[in-house]
Amino acid sequence: MEPAMPFILEARNSSDELLAIFENAHSISLTEELNRPPMLDFLLPADDDKLTHISQSNQVWLRNYDTGVVLYKFVLGRRGDSRD
Amino acid sequence: MIETEIKCDGIMARLGEEMIGSYDTGESGSAIGDIVTDLIALQRKATKITEGTISATGTVALSATNKTILSALIQLHGSIGGYIYVDNDWKLQWPTTIGSDTGQQIRFRKNLKGIHRDLNYGGYCTKLHPASADESLSDISLGPVDVDTDTDVTYGYITLKETYAAYLGWTAAGDALPTNVTVWKKNAAPAWVQGTGEAGTQWTDPSYCSNGDWDDNGYSDDDPFTTENSYTAYLTADITAGQYASCKFKAGYQYDRCYIEISAYDGADWTVIYYAAVSDGTIKEFSFAGQNMTQFRVRGYLPWYKHGNIELYEIQFLQDDVTDDSSNWEQGADERTVRCAIADWDAGATYQISYTYADYLMAWDKITTDDDIVARLVTNKYVSYSLSLLDSSILILDELKVVPTTYDIDTIDLSHNEDFDFSFDALLIGSQVQVIDEDLGIDVNVRVVKIEHPDLLYPERMQIQLSTRVRDISDYLADLHKEF
Q1: Is A16 near chain B, with CB under 8 Å?
Q2: What percent of chain B has pLDDT above 70?
């Protein structure tokens, strides 16, 4: 049984208003490195309606579900579609 | 199943989308805080990154044209160091220290499942050849500057004191000095010198001057006296050729207050060394950048449409008893050393040297024999001024002269170690941890430089990179060229 997701991903607009929570996000990887911006990768089903919130002007927030603390805020770097 | 992969970057990446048309501090540079303020102000987006706490200090000469703000900040970071990031409040932070030692310990057979230690000699360097778009280290000439000295039974030695410095044109021990190198010998107390032909001191008699436009009583002529900011009179006098760095004079004025300008001539150019209102009847002493002099000039000025003239009682210059001793010297065993026969060595003298930088720096503290010389070319096309190139090159060589030891911790398994105290929350980028593996002989305090969580569904699974070097500068320069 998979553990409960300890982090959530939120789509926010440039005014920080909540647009959506990507509850279908999976394979979320985070890379933190000294003197470089952190990087976040994740997958969403291609037919997820909330993909519309992935845009250059919006943000993605990574929040610790238990503590409510926002770990990092991100901007879009790249988007790609693939078929398994 | 079709899936969409989303890749996101931290907020700082936004600065990579903002262009700098043209920004130039000039060769004298600006304070790092002022430059950051200027660059941040160039953002065009509606949602802007603001300036947080910039603890990094220093003066940097920066020239950027058609570059992103991010690349300019990276260039600055290369010269200054410290740690740069944008926090969740969209504030650019630049502390000089980061993280702390929270006592975290990673130990084999405790919480450490796998470790790989890597000593990367590929990035090791003791002889750094920096290159920039416009200038090179050989654009920098110094001197006369202080030196380290030593002797043995055969030679007296002078060694450059500047960090990693090498002089231009070294060929081999015993060869003649390159023309850019001059050895100076100072062996007597400095003496105050008057203009040639002046006899006695005249601190109480204003009739010092008797040539130029000055009258026999030492007063400057009072015609013309209605031209604003033009000099009213001048005196030019020869002086014993030599190096001077201080001057003292006494002047007074009649009618309206005048200004006095004093200039030095080195045989080719005049340099103004003093300009101020005359303090009537007091002896004024000042220092200036030392230079060779053959003449000096004194001018009186009226800064307004006024009537007045100045009187010069006395003017003297402090001459170092410095002689060019280069003829006794030859190249030493390396490009930071020159030597002379012990018979020519003056133990009572103070030696100085003038030289031009070679186009490389040497990590002398890591070089015992020539076999220890490991050369590397580093191209930083964004540094435009030679002083910035020197500063950044010293910083780079500080890093590259140490073989970086990197520890890749494959995974940390805490699930079966309830008796072992370890806090994930304390494991942050920049924090220090102790890594122990008795079998590998590892017991070091290192800094966390990278943390990868391959799947946040299992946050305890992570790959950690710890290093004795907080950043691989060569990688950093590669990043710079890619501009992220």
Answers
A1: no
A2: 77
The position carrying tokens 């000055």 is: B214
Q: State both tokens at B396.
A: 């780079």
Considering only residues A12 and A82, tell me which one the structure prediction assigns the higher pLDDT.
A12
- B199 and B93 within one domain: no
Q: Alpha-carbon distance B315 to A53, whole Å?
A: 79
Q: What is the ipTM, given to two decimal places?
A: 0.93
Higher-pLDDT residue of B355 and B394 is B355
Question: Which tens digits make up the pLDDT trace of B15-56?
Answer: 988 999 889 888 777 888 999 999 999 999 888 999 999 988
Q: Is residue B353 in a domain?
A: no
DSSP at B476? H
Average pLDDT over residues B316-334: 90
CA neighbor of B409 nearest in space, from B393, B390, B433 = B433
Strands (E), B218-336: 230-255, 259-265, 270-277, 283-302, 308-320, 322-324, 329-331
Residues paired with B208 in a beta bridge: none
> pLDDT at position A11, please?
95
Question: Domain range for residue B429?
Answer: 101-120+404-473
Alpha-carbon distance A75 to B45, whole Å? 13
Do residue B23 and residue B114 come from a single domain?
no
Is there a single domain that holds both residue B49 and residue B111? no
As a whole-number percent, the residues of chain B with pLDDT over 90 amount to 30
Residues B112 and B63 in one domain: no
Strands (E), B41-154: 50-54, 59-60, 63-68, 85-86, 91-94, 101-107, 115-119, 127-131, 141-151
Q: How many structural domains is chain B composed of? A: 3
pLDDT single digits (tens) B106-140: 776 666 667 777 777 777 889 999 877 667 899 89
Amino acid at B309: N
Chain A residue numbers touching B449 (CB-CB < 8 A): 33-34
| CATH number of the domain where residue B251 is located | 2.60.120.260
A52 touches chain B (CB under 8 A): no
Q: Are residues B55 and B93 in the same domain?
A: yes
Could A75 and B451 be called an inter-chain contact, meaning their C-beta atoms sit closer than 8 Å? no
Same domain, B204 and B309: yes
pLDDT for A17 beyond 90: yes
Mean pLDDT for the stretch of residues A68-84: 85
Residue B475's pLDDT is 46
Is B429 in Cβ contact with A34 (below 8 Å)? Answer: yes
Q: CB A75 to CB B11 under 8 A?
A: yes
B467 occurs within a structural domain: yes
* A68: closest CA of chain B, how far (Å): 14
